[in-house]
Amino acid sequence: MATKEAPTKDPVCGMDVDKADCVQESHAGKEYYFCGEECCEKFMEDPDKFIGKKNLAKK
Ligand SMILES: [Zn+2]
User: Are 14 and 55 in contact (CB under 8 A)?
Assistant: First the structure.
């Protein structure tokens, strides 16, 4: 039990992503996973915006 990896979240859009089928990018020594290139690009433009705060509500 409890050997399953926790679902990985796309830090940009917040959806769960499958590590086997996603865009991967490393930043500051950590790996991040994205649902697609668009989210990855947004993240790399301004990573702190997405990892500094838990759930930045968009309006
Ligand atoms: Zn996404």
Answer: yes
